[in-house]
């Protein structure tokens, strides 16, 4: 029995894991365009109107009417035309542009994060109504009477506003009026928050009570197709959380055949990008219905609507509220916004290992102030914890290297008689008190930790635009000069030279090709991940030399 066969299997398993995850991302099925006229479910107790016409051009922004939730057929609004001026709000964290048409946030840029391949440090655009990737938020009111939705025209003063770093929150107001109903819609921007509360004050000046529902939804185009090994296999799609159902993903392709329809009290519904998130959060005590829909293009809608109406009596004013989170997927930040929102930081199926690793990594960074150095120190800590397992593996390898001449003699003696060779080698292992799996099992045990840390480094927004040293200015991007991947290949080759040579020529060739294959993989992996792997290999070499020297001396 050749004790290196499990090592080969383990290495191949790691390679297949990386190939499979990226292959899934690359070949994710794209649903066919939904037929024109797709509409969202009507608000409870409200009849659905004739379906509106949806746009057909894939790259054009979705028209507001196409994404409008089903509402009663009513006469067109008599509000004045939308003014050309928009409202622009700047805080320390973001710049938001709000339009009088719909009174929605049409564009939102994050100051502390920059656009990909941005030479001028252009802020990252999270919400954008047009382009290759459309991502927008729409919210409004529904009812038996005409109420303003995200296609309605509001009145506003317009202008540019700046929220001082230590100033009070800024309230941006939009007004809508028709007949006996008037609505005051208010956005509140805090100086240091990615959470934006939205408040509707509905005044009924008529003689009959009115019922009002609120909806809050996101519209997203399909994520662009990635090329194999050129982008991270990170989840981009919808998700929701309720106290009853907990956290669930709703991939965009699934919405075509299985629309989301979940009733809940509390929770949230969201759309995840690689490092960023848009979430619609109802009040904790408000019963809501989470829904999804697919428009032509395709365009994907996911959001929520209130399940119970607000009844506004004649002469009274009723209030409905919702919240938006528009920002980075930073675990500590998300946990403070809403329960379960931190789960949108996708660590895959090894979350139970990845979350503690991130916690340790973030606390190390808080002390040293450099994410690259933090990765190195975390790697050292992991190697120290696993040293007993590694030492056992290295001792087994050292003993196996001493047996190489006797194993070669056995192979020469038995020739092509594999059964006799295996029997003789098992007798040799028994005589020398050797476990043929002793060199590989400790390594296999560590593989889940390696994969968990892979996900941590892949989906940590803190590493985005985080510099390390010299030419590495973004640990979330590949090394621009491929220095780290080449060092990783060299270190992997050095590790193989320390190990006993394999008797099987085919296995020897496979092992010699491994450093080349892994170097090719890591050319396009985030620099932070490659830094971890290089550090891990270098520490393994040092540990192995130390253990083998002690074994030889003994």
Offer a few descriptive terms:
single chain, about 550 residues, alpha+beta, Beta-galactosidase, Chain A, domain 5, 2 domains, 6-stranded antiparallel sheet, 19 strands, elongated, disordered N terminus
CATH architecture of the largest domain: Distorted Sandwich
Approximately how much beta-strand content do the residues carry?
Answer: 15-25%
Strand order of the largest sheet: 7-8-9-19-15-14-11-12
Number of helices: 12
DSSP strand count = 19
User: What is the 3D shape?
Assistant: elongated
The biggest sheet amounts to:
8 strands, antiparallel
**Low-confidence runs:** 1-9, 22-41, 46-84, 227-232
Please identify the top-level CATH class of the largest domain.
Answer: Mainly Beta
Mean pLDDT: 80
N-to-C terminal Cα separation, in Å? Answer: 27 Å
Q: Bin the helical content.
A: 25-40%
| CA-based gyration radius | 30 Å
Overall SS class: alpha+beta
> What is the CATH third-level topology name of the largest domain?
Beta-galactosidase, Chain A, domain 5
Q: From the structure provided, what is the oligomeric state, counting identical versus distinct chains?
A: single chain
Q: How many structural domains are formed by the residues?
A: 2
């Amino acid at each position: 029995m050749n004790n290196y066969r499990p090592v080969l299997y383990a290495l191949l398993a790691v390679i297949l894991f990386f190939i499979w995850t990226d292959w899934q991302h690359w070949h994710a099925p794209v649903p066919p365009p939904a037929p024109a006229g797709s509409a969202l479910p009507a608000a409870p107790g409200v009849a659905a109107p004739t379906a509106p016409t949806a746009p057909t051009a894939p790259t054009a922004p979705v028209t507001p009417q196409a994404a409008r939730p089903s509402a009663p057929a009513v006469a067109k609004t008599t509000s004045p035309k939308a003014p050309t001026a928009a409202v622009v709000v700047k805080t320390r964290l973001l710049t938001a542009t709000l339009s009088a048409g719909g009174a929605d946030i049409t564009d939102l840029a994050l100051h502390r994060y920059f656009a990909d391949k941005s030479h001028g440090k252009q802020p990252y655009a999270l919400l954008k109504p047009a382009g290759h990737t459309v991502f927008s938020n729409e919210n409004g009111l529904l009812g038996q009477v005409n109420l303003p939705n995200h296609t309605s025209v509001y009145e506003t003063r317009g202008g540019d506003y700046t929220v001082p770093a230590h100033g009070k929150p800024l309230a941006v107001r939009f007004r809508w009026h028709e007949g006996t109903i008037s609505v005051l819609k208010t956005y509140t921007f805090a100086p240091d928050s990615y959470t934006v509360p939205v408040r509707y004050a509905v005044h009924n000046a008529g003689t009959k009570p009115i019922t009002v529902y609120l909806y809050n939804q996101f519209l997203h185009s399909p994520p662009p197709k990635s090329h194999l090994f050129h982008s991270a296999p990170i989840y981009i799609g919808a998700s929701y959380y309720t106290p009853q159902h907990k956290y669930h993903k709703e991939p965009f392709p699934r919405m075509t055949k299985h629309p989301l329809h979940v009733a809940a009290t509390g929770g949230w519904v969201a759309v995840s990008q690689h490092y960023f998130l848009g979430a619609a959060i109802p009040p904790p005590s408000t019963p809501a219905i989470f829904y999804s829909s697919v428009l032509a293009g395709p365009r994907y809608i996911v959001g929520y609507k209130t399940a119970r109406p607000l009844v506004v009596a004649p002469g009274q004013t009723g209030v409905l509220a919702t919240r938006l989170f528009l920002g980075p997927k930073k675990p500590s930040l998300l946990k403070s916004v809403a329960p379960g929102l931190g789960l949108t930081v996708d660590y895959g199926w090894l979350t139970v290992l990845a979350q503690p690793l991130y916690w340790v990594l973030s606390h190390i960074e808080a002390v040293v102030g450099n994410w690259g150095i933090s990765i190195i120190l975390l790697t050292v800590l992991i190697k120290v914890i696993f040293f007993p397992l590694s030492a056992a593996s290295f001792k087994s390898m050292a003993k196996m290297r001493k047996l190489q001449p006797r194993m070669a003699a056995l192979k020469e003696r038995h020739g092509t008689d594999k059964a006799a060779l295996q029997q003789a080698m098992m007798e040799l292992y028994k005589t020398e008190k050797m476990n043929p799996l002793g060199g590989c099992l400790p390594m296999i045990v560590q593989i889940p930790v390696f994969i968990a840390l892979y996900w941590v480094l892949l989906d940590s927004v803190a590493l985005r635009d985080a510099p390390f040293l010299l030419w590495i200015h973004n640990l979330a991007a590949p090394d621009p000069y491929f220095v780290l991947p080449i060092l990783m290949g060299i270190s992997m080759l050095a590790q193989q030279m320390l190990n006993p040579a394999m008797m099987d020529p085919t296995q020897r060739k496979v092992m010699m090709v491994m450093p080349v294959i892994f170097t090719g993989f890591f050319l396009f992996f985030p620099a932070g991940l490659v830094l971890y792997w290089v550090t891990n290999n270098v520490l393994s070499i040092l540990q192995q030399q130390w253990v083998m020297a002690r074994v030889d001396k003994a």
